[in-house]
Amino acid sequence: MLKTYLPMVVLVGSFFVASRSAASQEIVHALTGSVSSINTAQGTMTLFQDNGEKSTFKVMTSSKTPIAFDKKVAESTVDATKFDKPGAYVVVFYFGGDDNRTAVAVKSLGAGPFSSITGEVSSWDGHSHTISVTDKSGAEHAFKINAQTVAETYMGVVNGLKFDIDKGDQVRLVSSTKDGAPIVLFIRQE
User: Which of 54, 64, 133, 143 could form a disulfide bond with 119, CB atoms 3.0-4.6 angstroms apart?
Assistant: First the structure.
């Protein structure tokens, strides 16, 4: 009996330890805006968000902080400590609340031009990765989502190809045009 009891205790204990360490990870979220300043001496980055607010982020310097950050998304970013382009239009990846955000990584969205829309999802096709959004005026806009799309969900950041949403949900998205087709660069469930 002891032979079956001991492995069971070890198994249950390892599940407990694994769940405790997973629960203590910081969830990485994202938002878009223009970098207004970078202060390397203070370890901060200031961003003018698309919503008009100005936010200052601490820059994460310790790689010992456990974070939950989608690996596909992380591959296309620059570590926040290495980002040095004030004025760039970016996606900032962070954890923490409104008053104590810590920037983990940054993804420059390039030169633009960019479009932004807020509205209701009128259609979503997860297989072909297309989304249509109806804006406040009632106009419908169709977009393509690809592997470079960053999706901010209630559970954190995911790669655009993993994104899933329902018709009727509210979203805000930032897009650009590639080969004549509007491509979503960033999408956020509202």
Answer: 133
